[in-house]
Design goal:
39% of the residues lie in helices and 20% in strands. By secondary structure, it is α/β, with parallel strands linked by helices. It has one domain: Vaccinia Virus protein VP39 (Rossmann fold), CATH 3.40.50. The chain has a seven-stranded mixed sheet, sandwiched between helices. Strand 1 (44-48), helix 3 (57-61) and strand 2 (65-70) form a beta-alpha-beta unit. The N and C termini lie far apart (38 Å).
């Protein structure tokens, strides 16, 4: 049987979370890289497969008009918990293959943690639909798992034994992602990679702890000076090509 990532997988995953804060956050990665790529003030933004919606909250804080789309009822429940004070964030239940928006609607469309859950034909259809609702000259950001990482090996083992939380998932190399976006008529303008924080070893340890009834904090406590030094070094290296081939995630911002 061909494995897949299903709506039931996501309802189960998001349904197991009482609050968005129980999930590791990437919220400043998206905003930081869209700013580098040239997002304009007051942009209209669509986040597809929004999950907790946290990735686009910093964009709303900066004045963007944000639509957060997901097909999971449990995802939308988590989103609504966070946006009660935001008049410029609009949660939408919808299908990524048939977005409920007119052509050329948004200045920015992005997704993080979505494309990898579809095989090539479906992924192509999904990208076409996102390009359709993007304005000419608008920006599409695609953020996916990077292939050459120990996480990839662990993930495929868990998929093989039916223990992967999302059912099925693949990974990408940077050249592969770059080629894919160009094939859909987009011009890459910015690329980035990101390392896992906290690291894989701590995350695995935390999951083992949960299985035996020991709950470790989402982020490990540490010595403030050391954490600051590591953060400074990490941000300096993010501006190099190194994380494109060693990080947990890669992303490309491309122009229509």
């Amino acid at each position: 049987m061909v494995k897949s990532s299903t709506k039931q997988d996501w309802e189960s995953y998001w349904g197991s979370k009482d609050r968005a804060e129980e999930v590791y956050s990437n919220e400043y990665r998206i905003a930081r890289n869209l700013e580098i790529a040239g997002i304009r003030a007051g942009a209209s933004v669509l986040e597809v497969g929004a999950g907790t919606g946290r990735d686009s909250i910093p964009l709303a804080d900066a004045g963007a008009i944000v639509y957060q789309l997901d097909y999971s009822f449990e995802s939308l429940r988590l989103i609504r918990q966070r946006i009660s004070n935001y008049a410029n964030i609009h949660p939408v239940g919808g299908d990524t293959f048939c977005l409920p928006f007119y052509d050329n609607t948004f200045d920015v469309v992005f997704h993080q943690g979505l494309l990898e859950h579809f095989r090539k034909p479906e992924a192509g259809r999904m990208l076409d639909e996102q390009v359709r609702v993007l304005k000419p000259g608008g920006l599409l950001l695609v953020d996916v798992p990077q292939r050459y990482h120990p996480y990839t090996v662990m993930k495929h083992i868990l998929i093989a034994i039916g223990k992967w939380f999302a059912g099925w998932e693949r990974s990408f190399s940077f050249p592969e992602l770059n080629k894919l976006l160009r094939a859909h008529g987009l011009q890459p303008v910015h690329r980035y990679g990101e390392w896992m924080v906290p690291g894989l070893c701590y995350r695995v340890l935390r999951e083992i702890g949960k299985s035996i009834g020991v709950r470790l904090p989402l982020y490990p406590p540490g010595i403030p000076v050391i954490k600051t030094i590591r953060q400074v070094i990490r941000f300096k290296l993010l501006n190099t090509r190194l994380p494109l081939y060693t990080g947990i995630s890669i992303g490309i911002v491309a122009k229509k």
